[in-house]
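Intended use. Records such as the SAM-dependent methyltransferase entry shown here are meant for training and evaluating sequence-to-structure methods. They are not intended to support clinical decisions.
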Amino acid sequence: MSFGPDDFSALYARDADPWNYETSWYEARKRALTLTALTRERYARAFEPGCSIGVLTAELAARCDELLAWDTSEAALDAARGRVAAAGRDAGAVTFASGWVPAAWPGGRFELIVFSEIGYFLSRAELLEVRALIAASLAPGGELLACHWRHPIQGGELDGDGVHRLLEATPGLQPVVYHREADLAIDLWSRASDSLAQREGCYDG
């Protein structure tokens, strides 16, 4: 099974910070590790599906010329907008929108896609759809960063390790960062440039 927008709307109605992003040392340390895994100081265009209340979003905004942040909960999006504004980030650089992947996906290419703590809320079939969308929208040389809790999610079809195993098979991606702890998995993959992909294609042929 997978989760849907109504599940998250109900979740945020009960608790404004359901994963304790604002108070948990685990979450603070995880964000620091996530940001450290990024190989570039700045990215031209980035996408963060499942931005929640924007704690990571506010940090990413400082390193992106343009950041598209999605969530399915309007309450979470409102909190994220306020957090980014309070952090003094350029409001024009961050675009917030309501969206649920893979039912919707933004157009254009991205230098960075941050896929953090949402993969196990999807079914395996949905995650395979997301994988195809990532492959189609990641710019040459672009990066996919994934971060997930490694323990089972009640009601979910996949755990964090299962999510990362599927993502690592995304066509055209090469591993750059691999980090594992008892509770946490972080991976960063980079898409080969078009010229490299063409050379590899010629070699393989």
